[in-house]
Amino acid sequence: MIIEDLGDKTYFDLISKDKNKLRHYKKIVDTLIKVQSIKINLASKKIIKKSYTKNILFKESNLFFEWYATQHVNKNKIKNFKKDINIILSKIFSQITFANNYFVHRDFHVSNLMSFKKKVGIIDSQDALIGNPAYDILSLIDDVRIKTSNKLKEQILKYYLSKANKNFSLNQTAFQNDFDILSVQRSLKIIGIFYRLHLRDGKKHYLPLIPYAWSLLHKRLKNPIFNELNQVLSHYLPMSKRK
Predict the structure, then answer these.
(1) What residue ranges define each of the domains in the chain, with the CATH number in brackets?
(2) CA distance to 15, 20, 21, 126, per residue, from 149 (Å)
(3) Over the stretch 198-231, which tens digit does the pLDDT of each residue have?
């Protein structure tokens, strides 16, 4: 159910106040599975006209270089930093397994989910695309706006996979790699966006969210597929500059 005006009872409010957070996440995952089960006519694209292409992934991750890196990396090194990272990201994005054939909300997190008549209502769907099934579940799990334990993150993903596997026959190893790749890409984008909101729009209240965004990025960078990316990040942007 996608509804654009549901009041102010978000799942952020519900989850923040409830010790049993998993029950809310399970309900959200059930809704996401229903949405992802909708058959999409990829030929017509009458409702959603764009797919989550490699170019869009690059455009989003470039926000990190345009807004955050320019403030924390020597200006004489920015050009080479961006060039080196983009070469690596191109290789990494090419390893994405699942085709772009699912509805992707693109900003699927608890602040955009409303409790409405005992169902989950989804708002802010104007940027939806056809894309990878991993994207929305990782947006929910690696949500920078609400801190959750690693245990809860694993429980949510495990529950999603158990449900999704019944409908999509997922290869879980391939799915985990797609999840990690897109999570890293999304964290880079978010750090860039939040720094842009600070520098350009004077919205300093986004700055305290950046350290947690970095921690989410570091968590996913533990996947061995990011070994080369980790080396380049460490060269140009050591831990002391990841603030």
Answers:
(1) 11-241 (3.90.1200.10)
(2) 13, 13, 11, 30
(3) 999 999 999 999 999 999 999 999 999 999 999 9
